[in-house]
Structures are given as C-alpha cells and as structure tokens.
C-alpha cells in the first residue's frame, strides 16, 4: 500500500473510522507507533500523519507534514466503451487505473443491455483501493452517455477498434471507441463508417473488456 486515501486529508487532526479503520487497524494491525501517508485525491500533496490514539471504532491522527508531489506521468488515454455487464467492468477497472487511463466514457450501444447500471459508489471504492496499491493520485474520470448518437455529438474526433483497420499502435492520441459484446450493429457501423478504424493485429477475437485493456496498454 503506497498511501491511504481520506477525503479530509490535510486537516490538522484526522479521524479514521468505518471500512478504512477496519482495514488499517483490524486487517493490517497498524501500530500506534506507525506514521501514515495520506492523500485526498483532490490536490497533489502527500500528508504525513502520526497516530495519536487507537480506539475500538476509530483512530485519531495528527498532521506532521505536507509535501507537494506534482505528478510525473499525467493520465492521457481516453476510452469510449460500450456498456457491458457491470461485474466485467469492475474487474477491468483496477488494471485500467494502473495503466493510467485518464477518462472512460460509457455509452449504451444497440447490443448493450439497457438494464445494466453502474454502481458508482462501488466503482469509486474499487478505484480508491487501486490507487492506494499502485500509487496513482489523479482520479480516473468516468461518465455515462445515453447512446452512440449522443457520444458522437459530444466527441467529434475519435477512432474505432474493429476488424479490418490499421494496426493500433503507440503514439495515437485519439480517443478510442470499443464496442460491446457482439460488436457493432449495422446502424452503428453506418454511423461510424467515416471514422478511422484500428485493429488488434495478431490477436484472436477479443472480449470487450480484453479489447479495452489491450487498447489502454498500447496507448499508455
């Protein structure tokens, strides 16, 4: 664990409770003599706290120092991802977070099941846990758009990952669109026919989440 995330990091006295308390003082058995590194994911400061008291349900920390740590690797990759089963998205998120993806724009494709809904509270917990492990301290942006048409209206310039295109390679700065399971409908292909198309050369047929991770790893 690289640091702890707490929304109030930076205050002189910080109380740790709930799931974070359980993780630190029940699971990891953090001792009172330990100092903790804490971030809030809102600024670039790394806050050092000493543990003053450990109670049965909460712990009290005192701020020792604050260090400004500007990021050396700003996130840049923008993925446009057709909605798939949420549990598969959740499994892929830690990897995408580690690969420094900047933003994921989800949209409902014609082959997306419309009853699929993302649990944002759960997603942010997954991303926070990933950040604490991999050391990322810039939030991964997530948005949901109604359909392909709305996505095209918002983003004018993007590429598409599909069969028959040029090889996807490093250095591409375009947002990349990845379809849902089953690919694109004929109507969607008509909308996307003028877009630059890229392919995963030397790969077999990829699941949607595999295609997203493949894209993120190349464009990182």
**Structural class from helices and strands?**
alpha/beta
Assembly state here? single chain
The count of strands amounts to 11
Tally the helices.
6
Biggest pleated-sheet summary:
6 strands, parallel
CATH class of the largest domain: Alpha Beta
Q: Helical residue percent? A: 25-40%
By CATH, the superfamily of the largest domain comes out as SPOUT methyltransferase, trefoil knot domain
Q: Tell me the CATH architecture of the largest domain.
A: 3-Layer(aba) Sandwich
- The tally of structural domains comes to 2
Order of helices and strands: EEHEEEEHEHEHEEHEH
Rg over alpha carbons: 21 Å
- Mass-distribution shape: elongated
Strand proportion, as a percent range, falls in 25-35%
Head-to-tail CA distance between termini:
22 Å
Placed side by side, the strands forming the largest sheet appear as: 8-7-6-10-9-11
> Uncertain segments of ≥5 residues (pLDDT<50)?
none
CATH topology of the largest domain: Alpha/beta knot
């Amino acid at each position: 664990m690289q640091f702890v995330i707490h929304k109030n990091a930076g205050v002189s006295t910080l109380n740790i409770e709930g799931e974070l308390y359980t993780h630190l003082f029940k699971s990891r058995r953090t001792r009172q003599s330990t100092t903790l590194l804490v971030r809030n994911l809102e600024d670039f400061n790394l806050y050092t706290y000493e543990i003053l008291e450990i109670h049965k349900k909460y712990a009290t920390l005192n701020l020792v120092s604050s260090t400004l740590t500007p990021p050396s690797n700003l996130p840049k990759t923008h993925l446009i991802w057709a909605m798939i089963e949420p549990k598969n998205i959740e499994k892929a998120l830690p990897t995408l977070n580690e690969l420094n993806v900047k933003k994921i724009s989800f949209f409902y494709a014609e082959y997306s099941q419309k009853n699929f809904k993302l649990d944002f509270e759960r997603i942010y917990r997954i991303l926070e846990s990933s950040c604490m492990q991999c050391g990322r301290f810039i939030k991964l942006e997530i948005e949901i758009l109604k359909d392909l048409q709305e996505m095209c209206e918002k983003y004018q310039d993007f590429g598409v990952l599909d069969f028959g295109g040029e090889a996807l390679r490093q250095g591409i700065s375009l947002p990349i669109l990845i379809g849902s399971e089953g690919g694109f409908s004929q109507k969607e292909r008509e909308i996307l026919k003028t877009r630059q198309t890229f392919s995963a050369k030397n790969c077999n047929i990829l699941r949607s989440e595999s295609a997203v991770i493949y894209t993120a790893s190349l464009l990182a």
